[in-house]
Design a protein that fits this description.
By secondary structure, the protein is mainly alpha-helical. The chain is built from 11 helices and 2 strands. It has one domain. The mean pLDDT is 89.
């Protein structure tokens, strides 16, 4: 029983970080129907910001998380203005964004690889290797702090979407883009800022990722299927669904990794993505897909 509780604790702590990693991806898809394959490389971009702030100035990655978020928010605004804004009216916008974001991912991968090489890096604050012991149970403080901060950020995001005027505009655009525009919502501006927020969330997640995982530019290819499995399980565009999907799959992967090996732990996400698309493509919280 102790072993089962231990695995559950580790899975939930890591699931909180996965939830933050996926939150920006599902928010962007919900508002603009952009399937952002470049989201993982943006997370790594945020990780590099926190890594160098820690390396050069000794700034704790949790403290530097707002800086990473702001830097990546600005990157998101620039990317949207240069690449996505002019194509937003296209009938095949979602399909086009798959190729566009794939190209963006390649460009950022090459740029980060050129600037920093593909050497594995990790931020090493003192708590990253510590643990809290409760009887026979232990909780890695790095994962615990990252999980708590992730849930706090997601809670703030949910409150922003629910209780602010701009949050209402985002939710209205998510539910019905045309109707929101008819009601006076500046859909173009909402899309621009939401894309920036989504990439800013990637930057915030990157700050936490920097001391949880070792990272390098090409790491993002491994994370694409993982993040897609989280948001597809919860339902594309459903923020609460992404959180549930992250927690569920992280716990399952923790059990699989313990009893079947680390390789199978990663394959859990790939298998989950395949099965979800095969059995229930709309996800747990997604709307039922109507047949033509």
């Amino acid at each position: 029983m102790t072993e089962l509780i231990q695995i559950l604790i580790l899975g939930l702590a890591l699931g909180g970080v996965y939830a933050l990693m996926a939150s920006g991806l599902t928010l962007i898809f919900g508002v603009m129907r952009i399937v952002n394959l470049a989201h993982p490389i943006m997370i790594i971009g945020g990780a590099y910001v926190s890594y160098w702030l820690f390396k050069l100035y000794g700034l704790d990655p949790i403290v530097s998380m707002p800086i990473s978020a702001i830097v990546m928010f600005c990157v998101g605004i620039i990317v949207y203005k240069l690449i996505f804004e002019k194509e937003a009216a296209s009938a095949k916008y979602s399909e086009m964004t798959v190729l566009l974001t794939f190209a963006v991912a390649l460009c950022f991968d090459g740029a980060l690889g050129f600037l920093f090489s593909n050497t594995q890096r990790i931020t090493s604050p003192s708590y990253a290797t510590d643990a809290i012991f409760i009887g026979e149970l232990f909780i890695p403080t790095g994962q615990l702090y990252a999980g708590i901060v992730s849930i706090a950020v997601i809670s703030a995001l949910l409150a922003f979407l629910r209780y602010t005027r701009f949050g209402y505009a985002i939710r209205a655009t998510t539910q019905n883009r045309e109707a929101a525009e008819l009601m006076g919502v500046n859909v173009g501006f909402v899309s621009l800022i939401t894309f920036g927020i989504g990439i800013g969330l990637a930057g915030a997640a990157g700050a936490l990722v920097s001391f949880i995982f070792s990272f390098f530019p090409a790491k993002h290819w491994e994370w694409i299927a993982i993040l897609m499995s989280l948001v597809v399980l919860g339902g594309m565009g459903k923020l609460a669904g992404a959180v549930v999907g992250a927690l569920v799959l992280a716990v399952i992967a923790a059990f699989v990794g313990t009893y079947a090996g680390a390789t199978w732990s990663t394959l859990t996400f790939f298998l989950a993505l395949f099965l979800i698309l095969l059995i229930r493509p709309q996800g747990l919280f997604g709307d039922r897909i109507e047949e033509a």
